[in-house]
Amino acid sequence: MSDNSRTIYPANPTGQSDASNVDHALTVTSGKKRLLLASLFTNFFVLLALYCGVISVLLPKHIAQIDPANKANNLAIVMTSALLFTIFAQPIAGALSDRCRSTWGRRSPWIVGVALIGGPAIFGISMMTTVAGIAVFWLMAAVSLNCMNGPLATVVADRFLPENRGIASGFVGAGFTAGGTVGIIVAGYLAWNLQLGYLVFGLAIAACCLAFVLLNREPSTRSLAVEPFKWGRFFKSFWVSPRQYPDFGWAFFGRFAMFLGYQGVVTYQLYILQDYIGLSVAQSNHDIGTISVITLATLLFSGLVSGYLSDKLQRRKIFVFASSVLMAIGLIIPLFMPTLTGMYLYAAVLGLGYGVYTSIDMALMTQVLPGGGKQAGKDMGILTIATVLPQSFSPILSAWLLAEFNNDYSSLFIAAIIFVFASSFFVLTIKSVK
Question: What residue ranges are annotated as transmembrane (predicted)?
Answer without folding.
Answer: 35-59, 75-96, 108-128, 134-156, 168-190, 196-215, 248-268, 288-309, 318-337, 343-360, 381-403, 409-430
